[in-house]
Design a protein that fits this description.
heterodimer; A: mainly alpha; elongated; B: mainly alpha; binds fe (ii) ion
């Protein structure tokens, strides 16, 4: 079960509305390396993990990613607050206005809708943890690109926080991968199946 | 109005919750680090205190009964919501 906490993980502030940047940062909402993809990827992989530690870590990072998704949503909400159709069009986001007005939608920065193809689950713990480490690096890189694309110090501050969390998650997944590998070598199993000689 | 006070009390919770999140993830991969477990328990204790003070004033932080009692009218359905603050 999940319980909703009526609070962001960290406050989200902006200096001024900026629909043009909202159009870019939406990729961390519904893009391939965004927070929706991250949370679903990790929560979904729990069922094929061999150790309690791995199940715990995927539960916790998956849950934190849901909180990051909410921070990105809050950021987009604020960046387009008060923007009228002309503002949206001038920002290159007329298509958003036409289809969604101020409603949020799961797309990347190019308007491509979210797809389950963005997440992987091979059911092999080594493969899936390695996938997650790559995913964290891709998210980190995307945040770096986004930080380059805004000059609002408040927005940069939020993005830097999220950037830093990806670095921590990468570290924890690396430790988890080592632990799972050790566990599997002791169990004389590979990929959850007994080795047949 | 009261929003300033609410935001500053919430910020104190967010700060301590971040300590708890970070230690929680660390402990998931370092379950025998006694010092970190002590730090985690300390953070939980502080967090409980701060949450109680906030909830006494502004109503439940968590839904479904996890956030304590409600005054009248039903406090859960009152803004501001997190993305509006
Ligand atoms: Fe992450």
């Amino acid at each position: 079960m999940w319980i909703y906490e009526k609070s962001l993980e960290r406050p989200v502030k902006i200096s001024r509305p900026d629909p043009a940047f909202a159009k870019l940062v939406i990729t961390q909402y519904g893009g391939p390396d965004g927070e929706l993809s991250a949370s679903l990827r990790y929560l979904n992989q729990r069922y094929s993990m061999p150790t309690d530690k791995a199940k715990a870590l995927l539960t916790d990072i998956g849950t934190e990613e849901l909180a990051h998704m909410e921070m990105i949503a809050a950021l987009v909400y604020k960046l387009i607050e008060g923007a009228d159709p002309k503002d949206m069009e001038a920002a290159g986001w007329g298509g958003q206005y036409a289809q969604h007005n101020h409603g949020l939608f799961w797309t990347d920065a190019n308007g491509v809708p979210w797809s389950a193809k963005y997440i992987a689950c091979l059911g092999d713990p080594i493969t899936d943890l390695a996938e997650n480490m790559a995913a964290e690096q891709k998210a980190r890189t995307t945040y770096e690109h986004l930080i380059d694309l805004t000059d609002d110090p408040c927005v940069k501050d939020t993005l830097r926080f999220l950037w830093q969390r990806e670095v921590v998650h990468f570290q924890r997944f690396g430790e988890c991968l080592n632990d799972v590998q050790e566990h599997m070598s002791k169990m004389n199993t590979w990929c959850g199946y007994e080795m047949r000689k | 109005m009261n929003c300033e006070k609410q935001m500053s009390m919430l910020k104190k919770i967010q700060e301590m919750q971040f300590v708890a999140v970070e230690l929680n993830l660390y402990l998931d991969t370092h379950p025998c680090d006694v010092e970190a477990i002590n730090d985690f328990n300390c953070a939980v204790q502080m967090l409980e205190k701060r949450k109680k003070a906030y909830q006494d004033e502004f109503g439940p932080l968590l839904n479904f009964g996890f956030g304590g009692y409600s005054k009248e009218p039903w406090q859960w359905a009152m803004g501001p919501w997190p993305w509006e603050m």
